[in-house]
């Protein structure tokens, strides 16, 4: 009764907004504060588990620690039925959309993270045996039931660690059964939970040693053999990659762990990597085995510092920030570089595919793309022996051939660009430009055959395979001229021109201030005279103009030109002094930071919070650097043309004399709305045309007596504070510029 009258008085209160009253009525009508029917069912004699599972709020009540419900669910017959639901196939005659309804609810109840259910399930060995029996079925497992099983066991591993680990270690065939069903991705998740969810650290190390004794890594590596099922290969590869990342992350986070991770040690050992490569190339070389095996190698070669920041550092610093890679990994890969070379020459057969640019008779394929990724990662390690072997095999020559052949595959273009950048950036460190690059007498090559048989370039002391044998400069020039000719004939711009521009800029950057710029300039001087002249003309004119067009920093343009814009046909001088600064400016624009780092804002930096008075603009420290200065005394033709558009009367954004009731019903005049939008669009077109959009953020003229939201870029939301200005006077371009 009290609730009824309180709600009634609230609804009938004068001045209550209609929406608030409607919400209150809906709350009253639908009785959103009602109690659950679960308690009523539990009070009834003979209630069954299925009846409770039919209730929509059974999961909410379980997680809300409903005592009656938990006591009922933890009964022996209920727990047995719940486990049966998630481990046995439901009857096939049920409707498909409801067939797995109860197994799904049973899994959610068992994994609701309620202590009473966890204790019952983890402490009753008969229930654990019933769960374990699911693994003893013949493959393939039902993928949905496998996910229910994996989720339930995974929850027990995290919550009842001692009991479950002790139970599983008694089962000598546990790892064998899990790997027997590795084609189900849920089994992969179960293995990862064993590695990552066990606490504390000493118990986790016991589990890792147990898994190592069971030869988990070696068994997963065996599944990578070319003769295995592709689904098993894929899941085994993904499991190995996840184990590598998890082990490295936990080694960095858990400072108290002094004993090395045994699984990671096996993964990084030369013997295991060699076995992986043997399984990849033994027998018929399939694309699946090459791709899955290469993914593991790429993960082993990953930097401990991943993400975009690591990629940008790598691209800009070259060998100065090399990967932390175990030398045993590189020693195992080096003898098989010739096998990867053969994959570039003779990839697994693929049928023709139809693309948006026509039929591709011989697609690049995932195998060759992954080989390109592997070569890029190997070059980024800055290992001299690896770089020597790659150059001896002329791998870069093949990759450049593919770069220009598959002009629309940007995945490949990025990898080739990274390869070129790595060679140019660390050429001084690795001494790639001395005769030792082609002379393997100091360190015998693992490949067979003489250098002449391999087609290695001559023994010139200043020769470099990237410039001499691969003819990088000539290729850039020829490809650019061919693209210009194709576009002049009405064709489209080729898809690799963006990456080709970046490669050319990388060459120019290293020629100007790279670590080996003197050696590289000597190489340019050794080019044929006609080629050298074409290159100088290309760098001074074509590349410079391309970089100017690519520099789209509008703020810098406004600050530089002060609204002196010109038509598209005008010859605008570049605001940057040389090609290197153009490239750097464009890169800075792409990664510019206008506010403080998110981590600094979210991480509660003590200095920012303790010195508010002195550092009130810390969160927007970069915005103050943007220059929006506008010359108010501009009398150019564009300004005059814009002033002609300002002859209409524009009212200020004045406050209304009376506060408008937003709940009042109004008649909507669509004609007025359309007219207003049309006039607004006209203003925006004029502003864009004359580059004055930065001066005026909006212009609109409504019907007499209504607000006209004309707001300058630095004004407040209430424009009526400028009382000294006549709302009806004509506003010229000088007025807008000053605002």
Account of the 3D structure:
Helix 9 packs parallel to helix 12 (143-159) and helix 28 runs parallel beside helix 32. A two-stranded antiparallel sheet has the order 1-2. The chain has 41 helices and 2 strands. The protein has 739 residues and is mainly alpha-helical.
As residue ranges, the low-confidence spans are 1-5, 305-323, 430-463, 562-583, 589-624, 649-657, 670-676, 690-731
Largest sheet strand order: 1-2
Structural class: mainly alpha
Spatial shape: elongated
Strand content: under 5%
Number of strands: 2
What kind of sheet is the major sheet? 2 strands, antiparallel
How many separate helices?
41
Please tag this protein with its features.
single chain; 739 residues; two-stranded antiparallel ribbon; 1% strand; disordered N terminus
Write a short abstract of this structure.
The protein is mainly α and 739 residues long.
Task: Please give the structural blueprint.
Elements: H1 2-11, H2 18-30, H3 38-43, H4 49-54, H5 58-63, H6 67-73, H7 76-87, H8 96-99, H9 101-110, H10 115-123, H11 125-132, H12 143-159, H13 161-170, H14 174-180, H15 185-196, H16 201-213, H17 216-222, H18 230-253, H19 262-267, H20 270-281, H21 287-300, H22 308-317, H23 327-333, H24 337-345, E1 353-355, E2 358-360, H25 365-380, H26 384-392, H27 395-405, H28 410-425, H29 427-430, H30 451-454, H31 472-488, H32 497-513, H33 517-525, H34 529-550, H35 554-561, H36 579-590, H37 598-602, H38 606-610, H39 637-644, H40 670-689, H41 733-738
Antiparallel strand pairs: 1-2
Helix pairs in contact: 7-9, 9-12, 12-13, 12-15, 15-18, 17-20, 18-21, 20-21, 20-23, 21-25, 22-28, 25-28, 27-28, 28-32, 32-33, 32-34, 34-36
GO molecular function: protein phosphatase binding; protein phosphatase regulator activity
Biased composition (Polar residues): 447-465
Biased composition (Basic and acidic residues): 728-739
């Amino acid at each position: 009764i009290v609730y009824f009258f309180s709600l009634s008085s609230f609804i009938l209160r004068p001045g209550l907004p209609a929406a608030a009253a409607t919400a209150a009525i809906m709350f009253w009508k639908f009785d959103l504060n009602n109690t659950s029917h679960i308690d009523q069912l539990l009070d009834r004699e003979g209630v069954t588990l299925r009846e409770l599972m039919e209730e929509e709020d059974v999961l909410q009540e379980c997680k809300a620690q409903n005592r009656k419900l938990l006591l009922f669910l933890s009964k022996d017959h209920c727990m047995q039925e719940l486990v049966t639901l998630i481990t046995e196939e439901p009857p096939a005659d049920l409707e498909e959309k409801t067939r797995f309804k109860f197994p799904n609810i049973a899994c959610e109840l068992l994994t609701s993270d309620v202590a009473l259910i966890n204790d019952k399930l983890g402490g009753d060995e008969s229930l654990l045996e019933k769960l374990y029996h699911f693994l003893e079925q013949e493959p393939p497992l039902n993928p949905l039931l496998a996910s229910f099983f994996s989720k339930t066991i995974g929850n027990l591993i995290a919550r009842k660690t001692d009991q479950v680990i002790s139970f599983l270690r008694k089962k000598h065939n546990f790892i064998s059964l899990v790997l027997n069903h590795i084609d189900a991705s849920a089994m992969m998740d179960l293995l990862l939970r064993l590695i990552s969810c066990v606490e504390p650290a000493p118990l986790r190390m016991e589990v890792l040693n147990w898994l190592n004794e069971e030869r988990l890594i070696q068994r997963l590596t065996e599944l990578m053999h070319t003769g295995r099922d592709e689904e098993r290969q894929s899941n085994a590869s993904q499991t190995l990659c996840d184990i590598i990342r998890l082990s490295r992350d936990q080694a960095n986070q858990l400072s108290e762990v002094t004993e090395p991770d045994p699984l990671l040690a096996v993964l990084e050992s030369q013997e295991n990597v060699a076995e992986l490569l043997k399984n990849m190339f033994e027998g018929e070389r399939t694309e699946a085995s090459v791709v899955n095996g290469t993914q593991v190698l790429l993960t082993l070669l990953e930097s401990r510092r991943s993400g975009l920041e690591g990629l940008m550092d790598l691209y800009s610093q070259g060998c100065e920030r090399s990967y932390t890679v175990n030398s045993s990994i590189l020693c195992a890969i080096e003898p098989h570089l010739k096998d990867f070379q053969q994959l570039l020459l003779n990839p697994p057969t693929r049928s023709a595919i139809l693309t948006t640019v026509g039929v591709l008779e011989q697609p690049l394929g995932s195998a060759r793309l992954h080989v390109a990724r592997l070569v890029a990662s190997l070059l980024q390690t800055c290992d001299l022996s690896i770089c020597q072997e790659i150059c001896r095999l002329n791998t870069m020559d093949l990759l450049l051939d593919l770069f220009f052949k598959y002009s629309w595959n940007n995945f490949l273009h990025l990898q080739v660009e990274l390869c070129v950048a790595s060679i140019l950036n660390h050429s001084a460190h690795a001494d790639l430009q001395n005769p030792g690059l082609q002379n393997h007498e100091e360190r015998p090559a693992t490949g067979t055959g003489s250098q002449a048989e391999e087609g290695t370039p001559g023994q010139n002391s200043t020769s470099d395979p990237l410039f001499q044998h691969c003819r990088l400069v000539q290729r850039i020039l020829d490809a650019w001229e061919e693209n210009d000719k194709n576009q002049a004939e009405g064709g489209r711009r080729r898809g690799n021109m963006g990456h080709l521009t970046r490669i050319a800029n990388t060459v120019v950057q290293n020629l100007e201030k790279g670590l080996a710029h003197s050696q590289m300039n000597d190489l340019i001087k050794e080019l044929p005279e006609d080629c050298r002249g074409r290159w100088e003309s290309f760098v001074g004119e074509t590349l410079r103009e391309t970089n100017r067009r690519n520099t789209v920093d509008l703020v810098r343009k406004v600050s530089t030109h002060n609204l002196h814009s010109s038509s598209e046909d005008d010859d605008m001088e570049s605001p940057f002094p040389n090609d290197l600064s153009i490239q750097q400016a464009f890169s800075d624009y792409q990664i510019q930071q206008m506010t403080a780092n998110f981590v600094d804002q979210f991480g509660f930096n003590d200095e920012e919070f303790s010195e508010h008075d002195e550092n009130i603009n810390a969160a927007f420290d970069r915005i103050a650097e943007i220059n929006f200065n506008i010359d108010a005394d501009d009398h150019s033709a564009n300004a005059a043309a814009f002033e002609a558009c300002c002859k209409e009367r524009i009212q200020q954004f004045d406050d209304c004399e009376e506060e408008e009731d937003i709940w009042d019903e109004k008649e909507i005049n669509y004609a007025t709305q359309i007219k207003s939008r049309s006039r607004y669009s006209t203003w925006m077109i004029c502003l864009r045309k004359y580059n004055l959009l930065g001066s005026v953020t909006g212009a609109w003229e409504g019907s007499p007596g209504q607000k006209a939201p004309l707001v300058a870029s630095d004004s407040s939301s209430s424009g009526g504070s400028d009382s000294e200005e006549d709302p009806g006077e004509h506003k010229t371009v000088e007025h807008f510029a000053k605002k």
